[in-house]
Amino acid sequence: MELVRGLYNLRGDRHGCVATIGNFDGVHRGHQAVIEQCVEQAAELALPVTLITFEPQPREYFHPQSAPARLTRLREKIRALDEYGVGRMLCLPFNDHLAGLDPETFIREILVDGAGVKHLVVGDDFRFGKDRAGNFSLLQQAGARHGFEVASMHTYCLGEGRVSSTRVRDALLRGDLDAAATLLGRPYAMSGRVAHGDKRGRTIGFPTANVFLHRAASPLAGVFAVQMDGVAAQPVTGVANVGSRPTVDGTSALLEVHLFDFDRDIYGKHVQVSFMKKIRDERRFESFEALREQIQADARQAKDFFRSVPG
Questions:
Q1: Fold observed for domain 2-161
Q2: 42: nearest Cα among 1, 11, 83, 86
């Protein structure tokens, strides 16, 4: 998949597409259904699929302190979208200029002159432009004038309702990783580069691979049975802590993974960690000995989980 940052990088040979617009946080099964709808239409029109998204996300721009935790960072989103037939992601900087565009200018500058949209798929509740004044009806009227079609995305429901990023976050928050995986169509995962830490884990017999999350907030926290990709031919199982490490007075969010039966130098490796089962919440221990005993128990529980998984 091609990543294009900003309209100024859209050359003439990138003009003309079937497009959809959104945050696509998590790339869950609802998003996948929208992409499938775009891919089918793109095949009929012999055009590429372009996903139009924003950095930062609009809620992060307008309400940075209360914006929900991201399910996927941009790099994680690109990796997920690449599997579903998206040819191009147009990533627009969400700034004062973009936030201040009236709906008609947004349509003309971004959809018509910029991307050359021929078919647009959005939700019938989609709002855009300054003060969210633009809506689905306005897009249809503009499409009739500018020569592009506007289609409503199909609602994708599972269980009690529509699949959404909010439902995925709620499942992660309550530690229901099975529910999150059902909504996503895959286990929830985070990725990043293994970095040097304070190496305290080695002093208690549990060396860890440290992955700094580079997020304002994490959508999950606690201790988990995990699988790590990117360090061996097959995923390596382990036990991981996501949180601020209160026993050592930590403050910034960190993912620490102790891998089972694995002893290689993986500093600098870009890895993906999939969360398979929640073991417990993070908590503070009164001593490193108490922490060591608890990690031993966590590791046993994680190993028991993986032994119980078929295959």
A1: Rossmann fold (3.40.50)
A2: 86
